[in-house]
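Cont'd.
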Amino acid sequence: MKAAAGIDIGSTTAKCVLLRGKDIIGRSLNPVGVNIVRDAEEALRLALQDARLDRSEVGFVTGTGYGRFKISFGQLTVTEISCHAKGAHFLFPGTRLVIDIGGQDTKAIRVNERGEVADFAMNDKCAAGTGRFLDVCAGALGYDVAEIGPISMEARHPVKVTSTCTVFAESEVTSHVSRGKDPKDILAGLHASIANRTLSLLQRVGIEPEVTFTGGVSRNEGMVRALSARLGLPVNVSPLSQYMGAIGAALAGQERLDGGVAS
Amino acid sequence: MVDRYYAELDQAEKEKRPVAYMLVGGNLTEIVRSFGYEVVFPEIVALNCAIKHKSLDYILQAEAQGYGLDVCGYVKNDLGLQALGGNTPFGHIPKPDLLVCSFSGCYVYIKWWEALAETLNAPLFNFDVPYQRTEKPLKEDIEYMVAQLWDFIHLLEKRTGRSFDMAELKRVLERSRRAEELWVKYLEAGKHRPSPIEAYFEAVFYMFPINVLRGTDQAVRFYETVNAEVETRVKEGTYPVPEEKVRLVVEGVPPYTNYRTFWDFFRKWGAVSVAATYPKVGGLFDMGFYHDPSRPLESIAEYSLGAYVNQNWPLRRQLIRQYIKDYQADAVVIHGIKSCRSFTAGQGDLRDWLIHETGTPTLYLESDHEDPRYFAPAQIKNRMDAFFESLDQRRSSAAATPGRSTP
Amino acid sequence: MALVQIRSPGNEDALAAPSGLAFSPDLREIRALRGLDETVRMARELIQDNTFPTARAWVKGGGHAAAFFPVYTPQELAHALGLLPVTLHGGGEELEITHADAALGSFLCSISKSTLELAITGRLDPFGAFVFPYICDVSRNLEGIFSRLRPNAVTHMLHLPQNFTSSAAVPFLVAEYRRLLEKLERVAKEKYDPSALTDSLQVYQQNRDLLRQLTELRRKEPWKLPSTELYFLERLGDLVPAEVQTPLLRHALDEARERSRPKRDAVRVLVVGPFCEQPTPDLLALIEEAGCYVVGDEFNMLRRWTPKVELSGDPLENLARAYIESKVDIGVRATPMPKGESIVARVGESEAQGVLFLTAKFCEPALEDVVLYRRGLEEKKVPYLHLEFEEKSTSYEQSRLQVETFVESVLFD
Amino acid sequence: MITCGLDLGSGLIKGALLEDGRKLLATASRPTKGNATQSGQLVIDALAEEQNLMTGDIAYLCTTGFGRYMFPTRQLQVSDITSSARGAVFLRPGTRHVLDVGAQSSRAISVSEKGKVLKFKMNEKCAAGAGRFVERCSKYLQVPLEEMSSKALTAEKPKLISSVCAVLAETEIINNVAEEVPLADILMGVYLSLAQRAYALMRYVSIQPEITLVGGLVHSAAMVKAVEQTTKLKVNAVPEAHFAAAIGAGLLGHQRALKLARGGGVAA
Ligand SMILES: Nc1ncnc2c1ncn2[C@@H]1O[C@H](COP(=O)(O)OP(=O)(O)O)[C@@H](O)[C@H]1O
Ligand SMILES: Nc1ncnc2c1ncn2[C@@H]1O[C@H](COP(=O)(O)OP(=O)(O)O)[C@@H](O)[C@H]1O
Ligand code: SF4
Ligand code: SF4
Ligand code: SF4
């Protein structure tokens, strides 16, 4: 059986997943730079390497994410909204609500029992409350994004962060630091502020368990906890959460393969 | 026809004929024209500027005067244009001799006309139209408006030295009524499957005469031609969207700055609007209202009261529900306008109501009608793709598993 | 005396059990006279408690309450029916907005969102009626949303006339008030009685007179009554009946007059714009700290709109006529005279040295007027500053910088 | 009499030493790091050392800028809009309009011939219009900050940035790189976008020549060119203008000291 590849070109990272039947046989994650076509190829190459598979074994390539139109070697493009829904349904079949927080946007997706998108909403206006927001604030405090989640969870007196703008949040963070606030507390405040903003987005589609959290920011435990607390519900997270879009794309390709479309 | 209208304005200016400025919603075009005024509709000028990609220059001019980022783009387009001398790519816009503010459906009207009055030093008549909160107009509302209309008529008599001719007004209203009936016939063609009309993108162009040229023979003839064209389409099977896949009801003002791009996003998915609320900003003729020569001033008052945005949310919701049913629509698309609160405040609630209480899939998009800085094509396209994708998906799986309804 | 009886830590989700201040149904804790500082402190606490403790106490004692959105609404009508009229002035800085965004839209003022949030989170449950005046499209549309959200309550979009010269405006407004009365009667379970309305008009007349004396004192001797104090005294009337507020005002006036405080070297400013959404108390304090005396403002326009209501004759008509004949210049009604002239005249009356436009973000009525006002001020070389605010903000660096620069530009030569 | 103006900015602390409010003796700057009081003192020490003075020789110290309240030994503080205006008129007496582009905000100021602020406007909530944006672009595009301007000046067809958001603008820039827009064109696009935002502020307060640019971006010839192109007017840009706020604070300090010596004055 040929494998299906799903490639998700996001604003910050390119992800690729190889799927054969119901098995994820390879994956890759690399940063997107200036040459998107090359990054997509690289993502596929790395995933093939991971799966020890030859390019000829891939029967179908599906692209998703903001850069999906740049994947010139793919056969199909699907929006990341459908893909995250599909992917989340695949890993957590009971999912009814998907929260995807990526590098530059946040999405709330309500899915039906078949993993189809019933309704969705996205953040508008600006980059506030997204992964980028966390990246910038982590930078202002001199941490790496991977560290800030766990640190935020040690806070005892979270400070209030009100700035709705990523750039101004950075200066708000700096001014809290200069006033001698504990970085833990500032980070906890940042996480709470994003959780709150996300909740308001989720309200647009309606909150229904089970909730699955996807996208790069779901790797941040602090964020998972803040969201779950704000929702008052447990939240599914998989180690593969950041790959959810790529998994969904691969699944869409797999369906085509099953339907008899050859490459 | 639009060109001819601007040429006419130019002519009026040269001949020194009096010019009145009016708002589209609930306008008093019949009365004003019967006193020999040419009429400028700054909203229409503004949207034409946006289509021609000129609006940003005027908006920036207005912002330099101090109009904030959040002020309605029409207002900024108009005041910026005035400050720059009134020259548009399609002709010169003459200055007003009279400002008629039909306060119907939008509070900004009051502020806008006030600013014009102060900036251009022109007399202003405020025609206060109560907000419509009941299905049938209230007696006191009509009495209030008719009293104001008489004040207005007396003002016009004083300003022009002409005396009011009721018989002439009745003849004009008769022609209005003819045009209105033909317009409704056009709109209702959207009930056919596939639809021979595009009730949003196309109707927006065709609504010009019904708002601006009501009461003229020209308007009547225009809709006769349009309807003949629609009949030919049906006969020959040439439809605006050749392969109709999704039938939509569209709510909201279009993004005039990127009109074509926006339309193309719909066409790509075989989506056609079969009914829309925006072409009803002038009046809800398709809901049974027509100007009535036997009750001239009363029917004019009812017309002003019945403009789409002058209806409260319960009435707006009801109308949209009716459209979905009558036009067999599959989904609703709402286009929110950043700088127009009149239309937009509450559209989120409408979306929620449509999805949860009527079970209609609904997409909400946001940009601006005049300000190109707020049209983010990639974002809008992404949302549309995802929406139509999911609609498609749910349909095919509903077809595969009969008996299961799409949520 | 201990005012605070229960105070929750502001936990959003613990709303089922109402938190905040608690009172007895006759509000006797509030009626007790006390010193000016204490009154201000009490008013501030009451206003910042967004669970509407007075209305809750009132309803618990068997009464009914009606909520009114700013700016002008004839609260006398509710008063005459024995309802507690409460003005909804937003959610303040503590309220988190999570639900309301979805129903409204991104580019709207905060007060519309916070008011809706208050309703969604159950904080407005004590109210049986919601009245929204047509001051702008947002307030108007909000009524439609409330009617869906609170189907069991009475909602009304009050159309206030914009044609002040038509002879039909008063009869129209009387009819409009009658429609409102009919709805309020349902909530109050009382019938409208004209003589009760006349009594209410009188109660409100007294209340307005005192408020006017207080603002007059502040205009003349701002060091005796800073605006931060006046503001809370006035806003107390949002939450308690006029007859409860009036004696407190009288007491405060007497005390303020007697105060001896040094006069600072500050710039006298007229504050224009915050007639609906309210800035945070900290922002108000900042303005005074940075070197301004606020000698005139647009807060609490409700009680200034109809300076005098005739007491003899048909009370409903008197109330309507007072509205139509009012000469107030404000962003939410058609202008009685050109804005440019009007602002210059207002500067003159308040003997201000400059104007501070303090407008809520996205508040179109206020934003559009600023342009015309500016033009008038520039012609007469009156300095001005325009600041935008939001109901909720904690970072004041930018505002402080601008107010200080403004003060320096007036004071330094 | 020697007075000192200290501008505690968000990125850089700048100091100026003046003699009798007429002569600029020295300027110095240090990055704002950690404790503002300490960094500020370092600047004052550097100034004193250059002029062979003791700290006690400074008759009056006036602070300005974002951190103006954070320096306890100041005698007076003024806003950086007030001080930039004074400083600009000191450096270029014909100035009637000052454009100040700093790290976090841009301001347009119209001034009287004495340097008094008549009207001013700063950029709104959105952070898209100031120097920090240039810094981020420099990081992103891996061009050292000092070279941004000279590279930009070689542009042939500058590519404007349409996004109003500083963060999303970065994405837009990356897209431009991907689409192989020449680096110089992207860089000049950055300056032109800044200039356009600034122009909106300038129009609001009404533009009158002469225009003087102050703040950190005076070092960027590309910024000067961009503003000149956008406004179609000549723009003064002298290197000392980076210290305009510090100079202005020194001047105001001098005025104030004189008044005190005369025993009058209530201002501030
Ligand atoms: N190890 C990690 N721990 C916490 N957060 C992470 C980690 N890795 C990535 N992120 C976050 O994920 C974001 C990228 O998410 P992703 O879904 O890949 O975005 P996109 O699809 O837009 O490229 C980053 O901005 C960062 O905040
Ligand atoms: N040597 C330099 N070359 C180019 N740009 C510079 C240089 N120094 C500073 N800048 C620019 O000036 C900005 C800082 O300006 P400044 O007026 O000092 O800000 P602040 O007063 O807020 O600290 C930086 O963001 C940077 O863009
Ligand atoms: S209805 Fe909207 S677009 Fe029209 S004038 Fe009012 S605010 Fe502007
Ligand atoms: S703040 Fe302004 S826009 Fe908002 S509801 Fe009040 S008047 Fe209307
Ligand atoms: S600069 Fe800030 S406020 Fe502006 S759009 Fe970007 S993130 Fe949002």
